[in-house]
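REVIEWER CHECKLIST
Item 1: Sequence provided? yes
Item 2: Single chain? yes
Item 3: Sequence as submitted:
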Amino acid sequence: MSYNWQQKNWPHFQYRTEDIEDLLLDFAERTGKISGLLEGLTETAKTEAMIQTMISEAMKSSEIEGEYLNRGDVASSIRKNLGLDHDAPPIKDKRAQGIAELMLEVRNTFPEALSKEMLFAWHTMLLKGKENIQLGKWRSHMEPMQIISGASGKEKIHFEAPPSTSVPNEMNNFIKWFNDTSPSSSAEMKKPVVRAAITHLYFESIHPFEDGNGRIGRAISEKALSQSVNRPILLSISKAIEARKSDYYEALKITQCSNEITPWIKYFIQTVLDAQIDAEKEIAFTLKKTRFFDLHKGDLNERQQKAISRMLEEGPMGFEGGMNTRKYISLTRTSKATATRDLQDLVQKKILFPSGGGRSTSYDLKL
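Item 4: Structure as written out by the authors:
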């Protein structure tokens, strides 16, 4: 089998513009709509929407690679890096620390040109604490870099990346292409979502690191989209990818055998559209949360506020299985009697709604 990088026209990707015109129009319209929705948020609400988006992106980008992180650890790491939640206990999970640092770095440096040093720094952040991995370096092992599935002895090779000896030159070309096609540069691409799609495919086909290529590739695509709107984008590409993960791998597998990449472009733009729809819902939810706390300002004690804020981090319906006395005690570090009294008060104020009874009583939040 011949892979894309082995073909004479690599990396001169081709695609049919007429096949994606409607998708490009949808992308432009939704980009404008999200910008308008953001204008309606206070700075505090914008920050909260940004945090929730970064949490989703961190969690889902890791899940795509088979790593399942604790949401609370990721959220706390992001808030700490933003200078919030000073009193929160230290996060022991280095994976949560690393992906949180990467999310913030990508957002903070989006206007800057891409460089080898930047990618090395991202790699070191992401995989902090990993043993037997070369951090902040291109891969250098002599064995082939292959994407494989299947049990031992029945492995199926989906893709083989360029040999390690080719990586420095391939990455020099990739970085130059990325910077040359950025807004206001010599070969600016006027279709930003197409640039983001090519960015991801191009980077993943080189697969320059021993580990972490998928997460860093998606981060570079986010950088490309942020540059196009001149602000950090408020959407989670990884959440949309993870929802249909098999489609993602299938689209990559098909496209990495050719440099005619129309199927990949169509897949990627549709995925970004899904992420935009989800972002609209997240902004609407953030607005509801802001109004909720404004409405109940002065009605909640510090413990109640902490518990409800934690519930809302999980989405509109709060915790799966609802809040209960045990969870409330754990979150607020209070006594059973105080927890029971606080929860009953929230029920009376029609903030929480009980279900079940006795020791099985749980409480749901409805905005």
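Item 5: Key structural point noted by reviewer: The mean pLDDT is 93.
Item 6: Recommendation: ____
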